[in-house]
User: What shape does this take?
Amino acid sequence: MEPSVRTRRFPAEQAVWLVIGIGLMRNRSIPEVFHSKGFKWQSAGRAVFL
Assistant: This one.
Protein backbone atom coordinates (compact mmCIF):
# COMPACT_ATOMS: atom_id res chain seq x y z
CA MET A 1 0.00 0.00 0.00
CA GLU A 2 1.31 3.40 -0.98
CA PRO A 3 1.28 6.16 1.68
CA SER A 4 -1.14 8.98 0.99
CA VAL A 5 -0.30 12.66 1.14
CA ARG A 6 -2.45 14.50 3.64
CA THR A 7 -3.69 17.91 2.61
CA ARG A 8 -4.19 20.18 5.56
CA ARG A 9 -6.85 22.85 5.91
CA PHE A 10 -4.23 25.24 7.28
CA PRO A 11 -0.71 24.39 6.03
CA ALA A 12 2.24 24.51 8.39
CA GLU A 13 3.94 27.30 6.43
CA GLN A 14 0.91 29.56 6.91
CA ALA A 15 0.80 28.66 10.61
CA VAL A 16 4.41 29.80 11.01
CA TRP A 17 3.67 33.13 9.29
CA LEU A 18 0.57 33.59 11.44
CA VAL A 19 2.63 33.12 14.62
CA ILE A 20 5.21 35.63 13.35
CA GLY A 21 2.42 38.08 12.50
CA ILE A 22 0.86 37.68 15.94
CA GLY A 23 4.23 38.45 17.51
CA LEU A 24 4.74 41.55 15.38
CA MET A 25 1.18 42.84 15.79
CA ARG A 26 0.65 42.13 19.49
CA ASN A 27 -1.95 44.86 19.83
CA ARG A 28 -4.32 43.07 17.41
CA SER A 29 -6.44 39.97 17.90
CA ILE A 30 -5.55 36.71 16.17
CA PRO A 31 -8.53 36.91 13.74
CA GLU A 32 -7.48 40.47 12.80
CA VAL A 33 -3.95 39.28 12.00
CA PHE A 34 -5.34 36.30 10.10
CA HIS A 35 -7.55 38.49 7.90
CA SER A 36 -4.98 41.24 7.40
CA LYS A 37 -2.46 38.77 5.97
CA GLY A 38 -4.95 37.16 3.56
CA PHE A 39 -4.67 33.62 4.92
CA LYS A 40 -7.11 31.00 3.61
CA TRP A 41 -8.56 27.78 5.02
CA GLN A 42 -8.57 24.89 2.57
CA SER A 43 -11.96 23.17 2.49
CA ALA A 44 -13.01 20.32 0.18
CA GLY A 45 -10.41 21.21 -2.44
CA ARG A 46 -11.21 24.92 -2.57
CA ALA A 47 -9.86 27.93 -0.73
CA VAL A 48 -12.17 29.61 1.75
CA PHE A 49 -11.53 33.10 3.13
CA LEU A 50 -12.47 33.62 6.75
